[in-house]
Amino acid sequence: MGSQWGVNRSVAQIHALLFLSVNPLNAEEISDQLGIARSNVSNSLKELVGWKLIRRVPVPGDRREHFVAEVDVWEMALRIAQGRKEREIDPAISAIDSCVEQAKKEPDLNPIVVARMHEMQDFLETADRWSNQMLNVPKSKLNMLMKMGDKVFSLLKLTGKKTE
Question: What does the pLDDT read at residue 89?
């Protein structure tokens, strides 16, 4: 699934292994089980720790670092969504804000171009507000909300016919 979402293959493989593993694993065990170079495992583990999808855990009698994955799929999804927001939406908002500010200093800029930039800015601000709201919905309520999809579509009369 990771490669379908643009995640490095070894990062996705290590995450899957740790997610499915009942016991904590160290980097050497991960390398051996997946046939991935130790240096690649180390870099991938750092990335997964950075995303807060895995964490280091002590194993009594063993001085090596061991890792376990977050196994709550809702928590995992929320962490990924938060990370994507920080890495993708936030920089896009910053970039469009800068473009709009620069456009204010260019009196000869075509009004259609300015309007399109404002439209993009409004869209990104709306996406950001929605994202922030969804990230703060309790997991149980978010699950319920997602399962209500058909009912919400019916309520909004979104039947698949394009009206806009």
Answer: 92
